[in-house]
Specification:
It is built from seven helices and eleven strands. It is α+β, with helices and mostly antiparallel strands. β6 and β7 form a beta hairpin. The chain is elongated.
Length: about 250
């Protein structure tokens, strides 16, 4: 369907979503009001109201009585000390997840990958490259290598229906994980996949996971710095948790 054939409210929605996705509108920025949309876009008040109402229902914006409409604080958040399935994280926020599979192939382990997985150079591994979306906005590029003997059917799996994390955990429970977080300048491919603006930093989680006493996956998880954050809470051994007795 071409743009001219789309309902006007849908065109308004896509215009605002595009401005959010390309960074023109940032989290907590004010979105044009109904009156402003009516005047600038030459649409009816009913059309403007429907566009903003559906954007609110889909989690893109928040409408605050007496103040206006603002871009939702759309930064995905992961726990710094836990390994979680990104689809589950997104679902807990009440948002929708989907993924695009860019690569799903067999390779020979070389260099850093062979060292990370404790295998000899040339050992058989699988390479998975995906982009994960939250409400249609890209929030993670998953670049994962998997030991072939650990997940021999990996290439036959449909990773648009199940995440690699959920699939691999289903094969064998996670026994141990190691995570390193770095802020880096993304390469052009990552920048394009995540729709990042020029100069925007990229947050990379480098993760190894163990099962049955050996490392079985090595992943680099790239996130746009403006739409992702890590958080954690730590209580020193022997210290009382002061939040335990607080009312909910």
């Amino acid at each position: 369907m071409n743009a001219a054939a789309k309902p006007r409210y849908q065109q308004l929605k896509e215009m605002i979503i595009h401005r959010i996705s390309n960074g023109e509108l940032l989290p907590l920025d004010r979105v044009p009001s109904e009156n402003e949309l009516v005047e600038s876009m030459q649409v009816s008040r009913m059309t403007a109201n429907r566009a903003l109402r559906e954007l609110t229902n889909e989690g893109y914006v928040e409408r605050i009585a007496g103040r206006g409409t603002f871009v939702a604080d759309f930064r995905a958040r992961s726990h710094l000390l836990e390994v979680q399935n990104i689809a589950d994280e997104i679902a807990r926020r009440g948002h929708s997840h989907r993924s695009d599979v860019l690569r799903q192939s067999r390779q020979h382990a070389r260099g850093e990958i062979a060292r990370a997985l404790h295998v000899e150079q040339g050992s058989s591994i699988f390479h998975l490259l995906l982009v994960h979306y939250e409400n249609g906005v890209p929030v993670q590029v998953e670049d994962r290598h998997v030991l072939a003997e650990f997940a021999p059917d990996c290439l036959a799996e449909d990773f648009t229906r199940i995440t690699p994390s959920a699939y691999l955990t289903g094969i064998a429970p996670l026994a141990e994980a190691e995570q390193v977080v770095r802020a880096v300048k993304p390469n052009r491919a990552v920048q394009k996949h995540l729709q990042m603006s020029a100069g925007e930093p990229c947050l990379v989680v480098i993760r190894r996971t163990w099962s049955r006493g050996r490392p079985v996956t090595f992943a680099r998880l790239h996130h746009p710095g403006s739409r992702y954050e890590l958080s954690g809470k730590y209580t020193p051994p022997g210290a009382s948790n002061l939040t335990e007795n607080l009312p909910l």
